[in-house]
Amino acid sequence: MIRRSKAAAIFTATVLSLAGLVTVPAQAQFFSNKDGYADDGSPRLQVELAPYLWWPGFGGSVKLASPLVNDRTPGSFSTGLLSTSLLKDVLHAAIIGAGIVRYGPFSAEMDIQYLSVSESKNLVTSPAGEVFRVKTAVELVRVAPGVGYQVYAGDVFGIPTSVDARAGFSYLATSETFTGEAALTGLSSSNSTGFVQPWLGARADFVLSPRWRIELGGLVQGLGVSGGSWGWGASGNVSYAMTDWAALTFGARALETERFGDSDTARGSRRSLSLVTYGPIIGVSFRF
Fold first, then answer.
1. Which residues, other chains included, contact 143 with Cβ-Cβ below 8 Å and sequence gap of 6+?
2. Dihedral of CA 26/32/35/41: which sign?
3. How far is the C-alpha of 169 from the C-alpha of 198, rounded, in Å?
4. pTM (2 decimals)?
5. Which tens digit of pLDDT belongs to each residue from 172-216?
6. Which of 26, 186, 248, 275 has its C-alpha lying 20 to 30 A from 99's C-alpha?
7. 266 in helix, strand or coil?
8. What one-character DSSP code corresponds to residue 41?
9. Is the pLDDT assigned to residue 282 strictly greater than 70?
10. Where are the beta strands (DSSP E) in 183-268?
11. Cβ atoms of 182 and 133 closer than 8 Å
């Protein structure tokens, strides 16, 4: 099981490592397609850190080869955006953190997702009235560092625009625990996995005014590793600069991750994971 304290430690360490990249003070400014440059055009360090609250939905399919769950549980699932009641009863944590450091056309970035959910479900009721019920708990941590290079900075239809090419890798750790309830009390089964996948992407910023910015991003990941896995990601954010160092950001993002594991000869099946997480986000970004 991925411990919440461990996830929090990963999140904190990542933010501190990004902040640690700043070795000299940087002058804050409103939005511009010249981030990473001083007024005289020389390169300068600029940092943007953004923690977000996330209203998640998720879906996909999973084969865990779990003796407890067996084949009675459907392999595919889809929640839609969690309802307000499920947010209280099912969701334990949903956090996204992002950070980027720029110096001239070069950039380094970090993206973090943490999701913890659990739900009890009836599997089947026997003719004698016995209820076979199981509680499923899932935790997910994704840490994705990357580097980028600004391939364009100019005007598009009169709007200051910049485009970055990006590349990196992601580490995804998932933990699924099944605990028997009712007639299955005392039985449990768990599965944990962690894997690394490369990703390639692009990001475009459109500065509508010094206080308003639209950011669009996309990536492909997996790139055929882990038995032929592929995945994708997309995001769109709108930011309003409340000051020259703090901005309110809201938008949405989605990420699809796929991985194939080794075959389980005892059960004649192959472990696999296909997971889509998505939903709106809101947060405050800090610029230095």
1. 10, 14, 110, 111, 112, 170, 171
2. negative
3. 4
4. 0.77
5. 887 777 676 665 566 766 667 788 999 999 999 999 999 999 999
6. 275
7. coil
8. S
9. yes
10. 188-209, 212-221, 231-241, 246-264
11. yes
